[in-house]
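Render ADP-ribosylglycohydrolase in 3D.
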Amino acid sequence: MHVDQNKILGCLVGAAAADAMGAATEVRTQQQIKDYFGGWVTTFQKPPADTFGRCNEAGMCTDDFIQAKYIMDALLRHQRQVSDEAMREAFSAVAGLPVLRQLYRPDDACGNEGNIQ
């Protein structure tokens, strides 16, 4: 099967952008989004302090896209085959990322510990 690389890239860019936009609104109802942001979110916003992405800046991906990226990388290394080994490899790599420790910090303890690779 031949897959157009531009389509794959488009899917990845779309997923990353949607994840980054959604970081500011995660766990909010539609009404809460309208009340907090003054309407629908149509641009990248810094996630508020009560969201999982609170340590992110506007436009940064969250653990959701990071996990998807590492799963994709592992599947490519394993000839596109889903296996226990490929998933262990992906999630072990994700678990070691300093950026994910921000999810479990108090609101006032957001530090920059490096970028994902």
